[in-house]
Every structure is written in C-alpha cells, then in structure tokens.
Amino acid sequence: MPSEKQVIALCGRVGKILLENGAETGRVESTVEYIGAAAGVPISCHAEMTAIFVDADTDTATHLIKVRTKDFNLRQVDRINSLSRAFTSGTIDYATLESRLTTIESSRRDYSWPQKILGAGLVSVAPMLVFQATWADLGLAFFVGIGGYLASQWLGRRTTTPYISIGLGGMVIGLLATLLQRLGVATSADNIIISALMPLVPGVAITNSLRELIARHTISGLVRAMDAIMVAGAIGAGVVVGSACVSLLLGGAL
C-alpha cells in the first residue's frame, strides 16, 4: 500500500494537470479528494488559479503545487477524469493509476497542423450561415479565419508576452477583411470579421468563469472572467488597428 505522503504527492500531480489544462477549480478539488478517499487517505484540497494545496486530515503538513496555466487541452482533462473514475470504482489499482498518470504527464497529444487549420476555417464559416451571407463572403471568411489563426499561433510560439499574439490575429483578420471589401471582392467586411474571429474567442475561459461563479468559487471565477475580458480587448484592439491601417493606406473612412 502507498504511504500517505505518496498519495498526497500523486493527488497534487493530478490537480496540477487538471488545472493547467482548463479544468474548473471545483472539478480539481473533487477529483483530488475522490482519489485520496479511494486510496484510503482522507484528502483535503483547495485549488486556486496559480496554486493547489493538498493535505491529509491526519497530517499537519500541506503539499503546495505551483501552477502555471497554459493553453487549454481538454483531452488531458478527459483522460484524467477517466483515470480517476476507473480508480475510484476499483477497476484499476494504485500502481496502475500512478503508471498511467506518468504516461499522461509525459504525453503531449495534439492535433496535427492540417487538422487545426481546417478546424479554424470551419469554425470561421459557421457564423456566416446565421448572417445569410453570400457564397463569396462565406468562402472568404474561411481563409481570413485561417490567416488570423496562423498569425496568432506564429507569434504565440515566439513570445511569452500575454495577449500580444491574440491581438496580432485580430489585426490580421481586420486588415484582410477590410482590404477585401475595399477591393470589391467581399460584400461585408463586418460579417467576415465577426465570423473569422471565432477561432480566437476565449470560449472555454468564458464558460469556466461562469461555472466558477455559479459554484461560488468567486476568486477563480473573477480571475478567469478578467482573463477572458483581456483577450477580448486584445482581439478588438487588433481588429481596429488592422482596419485603420487599410484606411490609412487606401484612404477613406473606417
């Protein structure tokens, strides 16, 4: 049987993976406590956006894990959820849990670039169906959305400064959409911009912030909400700058 300290350390690793990859704090706390109870150690967990505190009711020491949030990867969250359910139901033992957790930690499963590019294009097209846009604008939104997404990803891999990369994506989208309309290729730059911004919109952050607030995890909910607002502000500023650049180069009002 594992020692109490080993269970606490493993629970901390579980919580870190969940929080880093976009799980809400309530899910982190409950998952960690369920695993501890299934391992025979009564665990108490408190999660915030930058740290997780784990301790056992029979131990005075508290295990602190510092967390640095990054891009959301809900695949990792799903894998941890499935693993914890298998352990708490008795389907796997502690050794298997630890082994699979190590595998999840070391794996960096991700979609291929062709899949990401196609996904960005399809997400950019969907809102155009609501606008009942022309077929030309629908096709243009596909490529403009891809352009903005690629610009954001390119800069995001070259700088750690937050919100700059997402702002560049918005700027590229605003520039391309406005330019296409000025050249007479597109009918509505506004519709194209709104649609092409969809791959950049922080949908998971907004959803999680609301879930946190509803669950009365006020601090985490407000932090996530503020982060989503900053992302939205960066996107909007980028669009304005991109459209303004076209207007300055070609003349005329915004």
TrEMBL record:
The chain crosses the membrane at residues 140-156, 163-180, 192-210, 231-253. It comes from Lacticaseibacillus suilingensis. Belongs to the ThrE exporter (TC 2.A.79) family. Keywords: Cell membrane, Membrane, Transmembrane, Transmembrane helix. It holds the Pfam family ThrE. Residues 10-243 form the Threonine/serine exporter-like N-terminal domain. InterPro entries: ThrE-like_N, ThrE_Dicarb/AminoAcid_Exp. It is found in: Cell membrane. It is a multi-pass membrane protein. It comes from the Bacteria. This is Threonine/serine exporter family protein. The lineage of its organism: Bacteria, Bacillati, Bacillota, Bacilli, Lactobacillales.
